[in-house]
Write a structure and sequence with these properties.
Layout lengths: L3 H4 L3 E6 L5 H10 L23 H13 L15 H9 L4 H11 L5 E3 L3 H8 L8 E7 L2 H10 L10 H21 L5 E4 H6 L1 H12 L19 H13 L5 H11 L6 H6 L1
Parallel strand pairs: 1-2, 1-3, 3-4
Helix pairs in contact: 4-6, 6-8, 7-8
Amino acid sequence: MSDARNRNRPNVIITGMARSGTSLTTSVLAGQGYHVGEEASEADSANPRGYFEGKRIVDANVALLRAAGFAHHNTWMFEPVSDEIASVLSRMEPAPELREVIESFDAHTPWVWKDVRFCYTLPVWLRVLDPDRTRFIIVRRRPEAILHSIRRHNAKKSGSANLPTITRLMEHHIVSAKAALTRAGVPFLEVRYEDFFAAPEKVADALSCLTGLPIAPIDLNVETSLNHDTLLDRVRTAVVACLDLPGLRTVKSLLKRALTPSHPHSAEVARG
């Protein structure tokens, strides 16, 4: 997007709970030419297409959280952000470095920033962002599906990865983001991950209205094979989680050995 018309498109910030579809949503705008910047993480098995997180944005948000007293690199793998830390962030004055980040991205408008941490750092950013040129998207997903994805990728390093815990964590992220935007009088679009598959026209229309771009359902980059929230996948993940309990790891190892052919042609022999 280099012509004057497209450079006047609004910039977009995308946030929501981890494993909710924020990367998928950001990929749509990146595919339309929105600038992401140098990415913080490469594509992997958890996100085969990539994370679409700008390194400078992630670094800035991590620095804000640490300045507020939060000890961890992210807000979903470890202990949740406390109300006290959220309160510190709501009163924090933005450092000059934040304006420098904005200026560097403004040289490549329109840009899209995606980071789960924005759920808590938005109060600081809202003090320096231009509300007339910035749009906001909050992505939601069923907590059961988030839990399944977290278990599937071992994405919870402390605390319990159970439905009540993940539901509270998800709601805390979403409520914090909505509260910051509402206090600032800034409208936002709420997108549901499930609608990418069940109602793609609805999502495409909403993103078109937000950005002014003619986004069609085919532009959503939806691949059913990448949606692992199926009954079979949930059963498989639950079985693997059970086998990873201390008392069953030996059983898991034996099953893996028994199901692994010892000879390159043994599978064909068995079928014959």
